[in-house]
Design a protein that fits this description.
Layout: H1 2-25, H2 35-46, H3 50-67, H4 71-91, H5 97-113, H6 115-118
Amino acid sequence: MKIATLIIRTLMGAIFLCTSISYFVLSNPEPVSTGDFKAFQVGLIASTYLMPLAKTVEFLCGLSFVSGKFTTLANIIIFPVIINILLINYFLNPHDLPIAIAVFAGNVFLIYSHWHNYEGLFKMNG
């Protein structure tokens, strides 16, 4: 379990670091999109703050996953971003859905592997 956790954590960290760094450095050209996904993408870019915010969160969580520091916190912080990636790909860009499912499954696995850190969040006081 420890080896699987290390591998998945490192791979997810590498994915988030690569995508966020390429966004900020603009080393990779944006893939051509069409239809509803293009309209959605134009809206995200027009908001001017949402994409830099999401990519900053991805960068910080990627650093956390690669370094192994604050992984429990990074799992929770990145979860809404991953849910949005999954739903955007499901509804607007099914071509990339397998990658989104893999990242979602990796995050769920990391939460499961660190579940002892989250148990206190779900205990009822009373």
